[in-house]
């Protein structure tokens, strides 16, 4: 019963559409009708700029982190990693935005931050390094997932390895169109680094 309650809380937290809120409140723009139409940080950066994108990426990370901390706050013995997965599902299939959300990257990172801050730092360094080299946000996201799996093996927590692997597979799935565009050399590169 506890698992279902906390999974639902995590899903609802994940469902808060940060990009939609920032777009409508700050700019009177529905981000779903601009750029790629995606409710994630990358589309927000491209359409609304650095300040709005930064707010959205931080909010999306926070959703995952808070979801993993809620069971800790209530002192309930439950797998916080598994609960975190529901925040990611809420972010990608949000209840409050017609089940069309982001691509799971920032919220997945937030889940890892709530469980292993050191692994999160590895993720951020990996992401920024790959982004600087490639200029592709999607590629940086996927490579970061692979590096996170490798590093999690050194931590030695089997559940962490499984969850990080599942999240990485999900991130690849959510980026399937980006993969095609990278192959066709039509994926947009960032211009702000």
Characteristics of this structure?
193 residues; mainly alpha; 10 helices; 74% helix; globular
**For the terminal residues, how far apart are their CA atoms?**
47 Å
Q: What portion of the residues fall into strands of 2 or more residues? A: under 5%
String of helices and strands:
HHHHHHHHHH
Fraction of residues in H or I helices: over 70%
Number of strands: 0
Overall outline: globular
Account of the 3D structure:
By secondary structure, this protein is mainly α. The chain has one domain. The chain has helices at 2-15, 18-27, 41-48, 50-73, 80-92, 105-115, 117-134, 137-155, 158-174, 176-184. The longest helix is centred in the N-terminal third of the chain and has 24 residues, at 50-73. It is globular and about 45 Å long. The termini are far apart.
